[in-house]
Amino acid sequence: MRTKTVKVDEAGALDHAVDVLHNGGVVAFPTDTVYGLGAMAFDEDAIFRLYLIKGRNHSKAVVALINKVEDLEGLTTSPSETSLCLTRHFWPGPMTIILPRHPDVPDILSEPPNIGVRIPDHPVALDLLDRAGPLGVTSANISGLANTTSADQVLDQLEGRIHLVLDGGRTPGGVPSTVVECTDSEINILRPGPITKRQIMSVLAKERRKQ
Question: For a disulfide at 20, which of 11, 25, 177, 181, Cβ 3.0-4.6 Å?
Answer without folding.
Answer: 25
